[in-house]
Design brief:
heterodimer, A: alpha+beta, three-stranded antiparallel β-sheet, 1 helix, 3 strands, extended, B: about 450 residues, six-stranded mixed β-sheet, 13 helices, 19 strands
Chain lengths: ~70, ~450
């Protein structure tokens, strides 16, 4: 989750900037179809097998901060 | 380099540092017997060639013990080098190297085996120069032919921006005493006659950073050489031993749980590259690391024609020719995070087209095989070495696309840190705290291709 702009220690911001999740398993991501329809969409992908379980339109049923 | 300790277990420094006093006393009073390794020599090779007798096993396979002074997770070049230098330089021999797979099965056996020290930051240049120096003497130190071929290393510049970076790197390198110079296309053509340096290409070559001490090495031999030498000094290497958890008590490491039973130890070192963030999470330590696959490929062997290692950042490719005659290609990392080690057709196609831009004459060469390795990428393209907030849990990770060439220097420095408890100056800039304190060491301009 993005920390509030004010009243937060710099260390908190750096944690937000640098400490990403790096899961080995199912993850929900936002993808951009750069060389095609140029649309953003969400995909559930397994990071070990690269299997994609589901995709959905951008913004629909999306849990904010899930991929941070 | 304190090699005098080898073979004289009674006459060595006491281990202090992170191991704690009780451990140090025990190690000093009951030293592990250092087996004398069967030395490899030309005469021995001739004798074996004539008699065809079995070669002795290169390292032992032993039962997992209940206690070690140091447990190293990951039997790649970093883990094995650290174990070797712990035993050879500091007399710390109750060391176990655990790996869920086999020795050198991860990034240490999947890289393109390029060595160089022409980095961008002074800290980086000094560190990698130390590593290249250790590699130069490694065959003698380990009594194992690691086949280091210092053929020279060329980083091509196809635009003004990269030409400027090459000039910058050359000056930083020279200031640190590293042989590195910007050269013109005519000189490139002299070094690599098969390269298309004409102005008619899609991406004309404007110049190159030439680094004569760079070259290639046999990466498997480095892994096996370290494993054999460490084993001979009493280090235990446990393959097929997966670490399932790291036990801590009030902020201090007490042991690890493995697929072959529990082990207690005061020091755990994480040397697991692509899997580094998963292993660190077992100890409750979060790392600023994302894992990306990096693919490579090798062609059928042909007569030796490519003298130097050729790298092109703009064309996302690096190529070298092995002593066997195969061309080894690497590219930039895959654009999305993944733990998959499968190759892809997109990679091969793109790679082939880029290689042919540089060397059109090899278009008939066939690709024999391709593979992928996992790269643990940090935000500043520099590694993370040193202590964490959990006492006794150390990391030697974040090696991205440049870990193999760093193995010896990282191993030497991490061994010193474990044995003495002091952070060696050589790696002080690469600690984990730099991300919280805002002093990043950006190697983006020199660490990899395609950024």
């Amino acid at each position: 989750m993005r920390p509030p702009v004010a009243g937060v220690e710099p260390a908190e911001w750096r944690r937000y900037l640098y400490e990403k999740r790096n899961p080995a398993g199912w993850t929900t991501e936002t993808w951009y179809h750069a060389s095609g329809c140029r649309k953003f969409f969400h995909a559930e992908r397994h990071t070990v097998t690269n299997e994609v379980r589901s995709t959905r339109r951008f913004g629909s049923d999306h849990v904010a901060g899930e991929e941070t | 380099m304190g090699r005098g300790e080898r073979g004289q277990p009674g006459d060595r420094r006491r281990a202090h540092g992170l191991l704690g006093a009780s451990v140090a006393t025990r190690t000093a009073s009951s030293p592990r017997s250092a087996r004398r390794p069967a030395r490899y020599s030309a005469l021995g090779l001739l004798r074996h060639g004539l008699t065809h007798e079995e070669w002795p096993r290169v390292w032992r396979s032993v039962d997992l013990e209940g206690t070690y002074d140091v447990v190293i997770i990951g039997a790649g070049v970093h883990g094995l080098a650290t174990a070797y230098y712990l035993a050879a330089n500091h007399g710390v021999r109750r060391v176990a190297v655990l790996d869920k797979g086999y020795v050198g099965g991860g990034g240490s056996g999947r890289n393109t085996a390029i060595l160089r020290s022409n980095y961008l930051t002074p800290e980086g240049v000094r560190f990698y120069a130390r590593s290249v120096h250790l590699y130069q003497n490694l065959a003698t130190d380990l009594n194992f032919n690691v086949m280091f071929a210092p053929r020279g290393h060329l980083t091509l510049a196809h635009n003004d921006g990269s030409l400027r970076t090459m000039r910058w790197r050359a000056e930083v390198n020279k200031l640190q005493g590293v042989d590195s110079e910007l050269i013109a296309p005519a000189e490139i053509k002299r070094l690599v006659p098969f390269m298309d340096v004409s102005e008619q290409t899609r991406y004309p070559i404007l110049g190159a950073l030439y680094h004569p001490p760079g070259g290639i090495i046999r990466h498997d031999a480095v892994n096996w050489g370290y494993a054999r030498a460490a084993d001979a000094l009493g280090v235990q290497i446990h393959q097929n031993t997966e670490v399932l958890g790291i036990r801590t008590e009030s902020g201090r490491v007490t042991g690890v749980s493995t697929s072959r039973g529990d082990v207690s130890t005061p020091v755990v070192l994480n040397c697991t590259a692509g899997w580094a963030s998963l292993v660190s999470e077992m100890a409750g330590v979060r790392l600023p690391i994302i894992t990306h696959p990096l693919q490579a490929a090798v062609t059928e062997p042909v007569k030796m024609f490519l003298g130097a290692v050729v790298v092109s950042g703009s064309l996302h490719v690096y190529v070298s020719q092995t002593d066997r005659g195969e061309l080894v290609f690497g590219a930039s990392t895959d654009p999305y995070a993944s733990y998959s080690m499968r190759g892809s057709l997109e990679f091969t196609e793109e790679l082939a087209s880029h290689v042919l831009e540089l060397m059109p004459s090899i278009s008939k060469l066939r690709v024999l095989r391709q593979w992928a390795g996992l790269c643990d990428i940090t935000p500043d393209f520099s590694p993370i070495m040193g202590v964490t907030e959990v006492k006794g849990f150390l990391v030697d990770v974040g090696w991205g696309t440049y870990g193999f060439k760093a193995g010896p220097a990282a191993g030497e420095a991490m061994a010193e840190l474990v044995a003495t408890g002091k952070l060696p100056k050589l790696i002080a800039a690469f600690d984990l705290a730099r991300f919280a304190e805002g002093r990043l060491a950006s190697e983006r301009g020199a660490a990899a291709v395609g950024h």
